[in-house]
Amino acid sequence: MTTPEVGTRVRAVADAVLYEGYLLYPYRASSRKNQSRWQFGVLGPPGAAAAGVGEEPSLSAQCVLAGGASDDGRAPRVTVTVRFLQLQARRVQEASGAGGYDEVDELVVGARSWLSWDEAVEREIELPSVAVSELAESLDFPIEVAGGTDIEELPAADGSTEGRIVRSRLPITATVTLGAAADDGFTRLTVEVRNTGPETVGKDLAIARSLIGAHAIVTVRGGSFVSLLEPPDAAAGPVARALHHRCFPVLAGARGETDTVLISPIILYDYPEVAAQSDGALFDSTEIDEILTLRVMTMTDEEKSQARATDPLAAQIVDRCDAMTPEAMQRLHGTFRDPRLDPGLIPELPEGVPWWDPAADASVRPDVDAVSVNGVRVARGSAVRLHPSRRADAQDLFFDGRTATVASVHADVDGNTHVGVVVDDDPAADLHDWYGRYLYFAPDELEPLGGDEPGREES
């Protein structure tokens, strides 16, 4: 199903979320880590989590809407698109006598190998557009995805039937609940996706009845969403009261647009993007395209054949890596910029001083340099409170609100400033300071707690 509400940029990120962790290198079915699946955002059937055979049945998020009206003066309307994978069991059967079939783990037909394996089918359901004013009382939208069985014959070279592939799916039912409540001049929009299938306590049935990689895309017309990571001051209260369960809502689309939120099962920042250098999905969690591509290239022909037999998407990965050009590989290696082409980025070296000698760049002194934060000079010894922004990684977010002591102020060749700190209540703070193992934050992620400190403010 194609959803016009979902733009190309948003869909690219949503597809990455949908398949994150779907297959792991070396992409072979025999690999242990590919025998115990699935990935993020799994909504299991009722009873599965309690029985220890599956995951919780729901995810929910509250997004904050600013006021406004559509061009025709009507109240804002929201459209929710739910996306997930449905498990599809692929069973390979070999032809036996009297027109019967025997199930086998692997069947080789000509040059092609077929394995019994669990595939996935993409599902995307766009709910009817609804006015925010109609959500004062929550509305439920049922989702039903049919099960079924498909059979693909595998003919031999002489035209006889060598075997067949039987693909089967169990039905999936879910409910999306939408609600809205006024909050200090804004509106908190609630989106909950819940698996409402039959109670299940068996492991294989639980994953077959799960919504896998589940996430939602919410668009608004006649209004705008507020960033939950960097809200304006006026929305600080409603954002602080917004609750989320097993998901992370972020603004999506082109930077600056505020009509779309991606409710993701993995931690993202506002306006996430797929790297332009990436030629295709590799699915592997925390993937680094260049490294994984090089690893695929080093696989033997037999290993590549086994990977191709695992899943059509694994076959695409192997084929794409085999066909990769040197130019495409160079793009994966990153963007190279020679700083010597930009005058002023590399200072003139004193005669007789090698480039690696600290004396070669006497203009930079992290131990005494300073930076102005909200009009306060911050340098080594300054007391600050940490407020990691959307640029921060997941680990940095754990330091939000903690106090720290500045250890150094650095400037890079791009003109950015980085402030090294040691967290005050870290039991190993003295060791970190002694070894120079600091946490680094941008100046706008710091709240000065003291007055001016000595040091040279960077120009």
Give structural notes.
The chain is α+β, with helices and mostly antiparallel strands. It has 2 domains: 8-284, no CATH class; 358-457, Roll (SH3 type barrels), CATH 2.30.30. It is built from 9 helices and 25 strands. The model is unreliable at 1-5, 336-347 and 452-459 (pLDDT under 50).
Q: What's the helix and strand layout?
A:
Blueprint: H1 8-19, E1 58-66, E2 77-95, E3 101-104, E4 106-109, E5 112-115, E6 117-126, E7 130-131, E8 139-145, E9 148-155, E10 161-169, E11 172-183, E12 186-195, H2 203-208, E13 212-221, E14 224-225, H3 236-241, E15 244-245, E16 248-251, E17 260-264, H4 289-297, H5 301-310, H6 312-322, H7 326-332, E18 369-373, E19 376-379, E20 383-386, H8 394-397, E21 403-411, E22 417-423, H9 429-435, E23 439-441, E24 446-448, E25 456-457
Parallel strand pairs: 18-25
Antiparallel strand pairs: 1-12, 1-14, 1-15, 2-3, 2-6, 2-7, 2-10, 2-13, 4-5, 8-11, 9-10, 11-12, 13-17, 16-17, 18-19, 20-21, 20-24, 21-22, 22-23
Summed up:
The protein is α+β, with helices and mostly antiparallel strands. The protein is built from nine helices and 25 strands.
What are its keywords?
single chain; 9-stranded antiparallel sheet; 6-stranded antiparallel sheet; SH3 type barrels; disordered C terminus; 459 residues
- Category from helices, strands and their pairing: alpha+beta
Instruction: Give the CA-based shape.
Output: globular
Number of strands: 25
How far apart are the first and last residues' alpha carbons, in Å? 54 Å
Major sheet details: 9 strands, antiparallel
Q: Taking all residues together, what is the mean pLDDT?
A: 86
Radius of gyration: 27 Å
Low-confidence stretches: 1-5, 336-347, 452-459
Number of helices: 9
- The proportion of strand residues reads 25-35%
Number of domains: 2
Helicity range: 10-25%
